[in-house]
């Protein structure tokens, strides 16, 4: 059957109010999306974290009166609706449509990220099996892409690797498949650690090759290669800790950084690292270098 879809542009603070109101007026589903239509995969336990620019998508039965719907929502929320759009959409196989949105992706010369429902385009390449799931990091975001490209270009044989803010485990698992004998992951979110373990098992990686820890439990052992795809603010504030986790002569890659934040992050690491030129993709950057 076809549907009536209402899309609301909201702030995180407005989310609970409008979610409750939409359900009260008969929405059959309510979905949070970021401004680039990426669904939220990684809620902290008991919370729903939101981007600063969030869309709320609600589906109603096709014969719903759009004008009456808007009027009712305004009454429930005591004011005009935020910027919104109403459209009729045709029925489709939503699971199939969602799956079709994730195709195999190539990063660098050797590495592919392959959803489980696809055949590997190059069976003899380095193929990392990964589905969208509990945590961020499916390769689609520029920050993840920048880190995967960097890892693909590194000689990792014999190297220890630390994935600081591991999320789905995609970067550590990629490093292991690309030749690293062992990687360690850490994240503040227990769900991310569970997702990392699950994805490692899916790729045939034994637990002892990829142990994961909450930050308080992380062994303070410097690694040959450290990747940290988090956010600019934590990268700056945690610079002394992250630096201490890189061996002398070791390599570091930082991402999760907007282009306008690059200078501040570079300044936080310039004294301890010989930094490479900043890599840029779609307004996001990667900063890498070698520990002095």
From TrEMBL:
<dbReference type="GO" id="GO:0005829">
    <property type="term" value="C:cytosol"/>
</dbReference>
<dbReference type="GO" id="GO:0032259">
    <property type="term" value="P:methylation"/>
</dbReference>
<keyword id="KW-0808">Transferase</keyword>
<feature type="binding site">
    <location>
        <position position="144"/>
    </location>
    <ligand>
        <name>S-adenosyl-L-methionine</name>
    </ligand>
</feature>
<keyword id="KW-0489">Methyltransferase</keyword>
<keyword id="KW-0949">S-adenosyl-L-methionine</keyword>
<keyword id="KW-0963">Cytoplasm</keyword>
<dbReference type="InterPro" id="IPR050078">
    <property type="entry name" value="Ribosomal_L11_MeTrfase_PrmA"/>
</dbReference>
<dbReference type="InterPro" id="IPR029063">
    <property type="entry name" value="SAM-dependent_MTases_sf"/>
</dbReference>
<dbReference type="GO" id="GO:0016279">
    <property type="term" value="F:protein-lysine N-methyltransferase activity"/>
</dbReference>
<comment type="similarity">
    <text>Belongs to the methyltransferase superfamily. PrmA family.</text>
</comment>
<feature type="binding site">
    <location>
        <position position="165"/>
    </location>
    <ligand>
        <name>S-adenosyl-L-methionine</name>
    </ligand>
</feature>
<protein>
    <recommendedName>
        <fullName>Ribosomal protein L11 methyltransferase</fullName>
        <ecNumber>2.1.1.-</ecNumber>
    </recommendedName>
</protein>
<feature type="binding site">
    <location>
        <position position="229"/>
    </location>
    <ligand>
        <name>S-adenosyl-L-methionine</name>
    </ligand>
</feature>
<comment type="function">
    <text>Methylates ribosomal protein L11.</text>
</comment>
<dbReference type="InterPro" id="IPR004498">
    <property type="entry name" value="Ribosomal_PrmA_MeTrfase"/>
</dbReference>
<feature type="binding site">
    <location>
        <position position="187"/>
    </location>
    <ligand>
        <name>S-adenosyl-L-methionine</name>
    </ligand>
</feature>
<dbReference type="Pfam" id="PF06325">
    <property type="entry name" value="PrmA"/>
</dbReference>
């Amino acid at each position: 059957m076809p549907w009536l879809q209402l899309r609301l542009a909201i702030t995180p603070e407005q989310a609970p109010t409008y979610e409750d109101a939409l359900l009260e007026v008969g929405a059959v589903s309510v979905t949070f999306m970021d401004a680039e239509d990426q669904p939220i995969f990684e809620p902290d336990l008991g919370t729903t974290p939101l981007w600063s620019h969030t869309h709320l998508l609600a589906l109603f039965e096709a014969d719903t009166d759009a004008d009456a719907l808007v009027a009712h929502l305004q009454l429930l929320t005591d004011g005009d609706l935020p910027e919104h759009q109403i459209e009729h959409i045709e029925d489709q196989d939503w699971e199939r449509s969602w799956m079709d949105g994730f195709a195999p992706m190539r990063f660098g010369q050797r590495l592919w990220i392959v959803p489980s429902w696809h055949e590997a385009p190059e069976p003899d390449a380095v193929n990392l099996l990964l589905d969208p799931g509990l945590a961020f990091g499916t390769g689609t975001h520029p920050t993840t892409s920048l880190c995967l490209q960097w890892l693909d270009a590194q000689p990792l044989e014999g190297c220890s690797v630390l994935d600081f803010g591991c999320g789905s485990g995609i970067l550590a698992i990629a490093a292991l498949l690309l030749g690293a004998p062992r990687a360690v992951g850490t994240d503040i979110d227990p769900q991310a650690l569970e997702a990392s373990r699950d994805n490692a098992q899916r790729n045939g990686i034994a637990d002892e090759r990829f142990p994961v820890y909450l930050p308080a439990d992380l062994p303070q052992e410097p690694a040959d290669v450290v990747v940290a795809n988090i956010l600019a603010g934590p990268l700056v504030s945690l610079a002394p800790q992250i630096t201490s986790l890189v061996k002398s002569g070791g390599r570091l890659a930082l991402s999760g950084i907007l282009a306008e934040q690059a200078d501040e992050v570079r300044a936080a690491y310039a004294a301890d690292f010989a930094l490479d030129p900043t890599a840029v993709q779609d307004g996001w950057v990667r900063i890498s270098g070698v520990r002095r």
